[in-house]
């Protein structure tokens, strides 16, 4: 049964007697489909979150042949309900955990809907060369051919593996190893929903062994913020562009406390001329950063000298929002924010 949130589940409780010849991996569980139960083995929508970290580990006893496991239950929610309190707690606890010499790596179990946001948040706040692997599932634990158990086994394998070092935060699902910087959920329902943008996958699991296509690499422009003493983040809203969009959304966002705005723009960061005029008026009145990203699944928004917006470059709206929150919280000035975004696409 789930323990209270943030509580350590000691090794003996997850039936993992310490085997000193094995590496040590810590699992931080947050909820999601990987921790969900349906009413029957054919139910793959409308199921409920309800399994704790202990249940997840007990479902895959083979994990304990690979690694000693400690577990922390951080939350137990669908990932649409993950918030900055949870992601800051994860960042704080993961930094502390990875600083312990005996820990090889960590796994975060998470719903897939917003997994890329938490993974990117960790990419920008965890300072360690050790592997951090974020994993989810598309079918609940009770379903026929549930994908969670093998995904979990692979994620622990990777977190325990020296091959997983110096690769930033990784996302594993459906045999693939992706970089948190570039991986995005692409389909609301299918097992192969996570794939990386043009930047490509990092590697693949073959017979549960992680194989990397590249030597350790860092995404260009990666910034790591120190959030040790941060308890809350600056409010940044995302405004979704579409035909006939409401230009007043920019003003509403400001009056509800936003310190920055990300536009999920049409094409490469666009919006209607009326919305553009309203956004520019907000920028002129407040000086707040408005970052133009794209509503298309993949793409790039180039910088323009004439524009009042900051180009998101390769960051999609949800990742641009996290980067902007962190930059604002760290007290970055407008130009530093602009440079932080531009650092991901250095001009030749
Ligand atoms: N596949 C999933 O994990 C979806 C689930 N709704 C979530 O918590 O994000």
Automatic annotation (TrEMBL):
Keyword Signal applies: yes
EC number from the UniProt entry: 3.5.1.1
GO terms of biological process kind: L-asparagine catabolic process
Primary enzyme class: hydrolase
Active site per the UniProt annotation: 33, 112
GO molecular function, one term: asparaginase activity
UniProt-listed Gene3D superfamilies: 3.40.50.40, L-asparaginase, N-terminal domain
Coiled coil: none
Presence of keyword Signal: yes
Domain Asparaginase/glutaminase C-terminal residue range list: 235-341
Domain L-asparaginase N-terminal: 24-208
Keywords tagged on the record: Hydrolase, Signal
Family listed: Belongs to the asparaginase 1 family.
Name the UniProt record assigns to this protein: asparaginase
Organism for this UniProt entry: Zopfia rhizophila CBS 207.26
Upper taxonomic lineage: Eukaryota, Fungi, Dikarya, Ascomycota, Pezizomycotina
